[in-house]
TrEMBL record:
InterPro entries: CCD48. The keyword Coiled coil applies. It comes from Nyctibius grandis (Great potoo). Keywords: Coiled coil. This is EFCC1 protein. It comes from the Eukaryota. Pfam families: CCD48. Residues 2-46 form a coiled coil.
Length: 113
């Protein structure tokens, strides 16, 4: 009985560790997604053309064509999209104060079409 309880406890510890790992992974994905959505909001506020936005998206998808081993593909795509958006010239030329003041006035996650 004691042996069975010890094995059950060990299995529960392993399951808890796996759940914690998954929680951390999902937190990282959520954080990256929030960053990407904020960058998209800033670009929308700067009236980026659909053509330019399409080029950013196509460039992202091209860079993620072959999934890297050991890295979750959705996170890889989000990471690449974040990199492409931060490299966007419109965002780099935008004054920092304007971006910060505008972010505080609106919800950065609402993107209207």
């Amino acid at each position: 009985e004691l042996q069975r309880k010890a094995e059950e406890t060990e299995l529960l510890k392993m399951e808890l560790q796996m759940l914690e790992t998954e929680r951390v992974r999902l937190s990282l994905v959520e954080e990256k997604l929030m960053d990407v959505l904020q960058l998209l909001q800033q670009l929308r506020d700067l009236n980026i053309s659909k053509r330019a936005l399409g080029k950013i998206l196509l460039s992202t998808l091209e860079s993620c064509r072959e999934p890297q081993p050991g890295k979750a593909h959705p996170f890889e795509v989000l990471d690449a999209l974040h990199h492409e958006l931060t490299a966007c010239e419109l965002l780099q030329s935008q004054p920092l104060e304007k971006a910060q003041s505008h972010q505080s006035l609106s919800n950065p996650l609402v993107i209207s079409c």
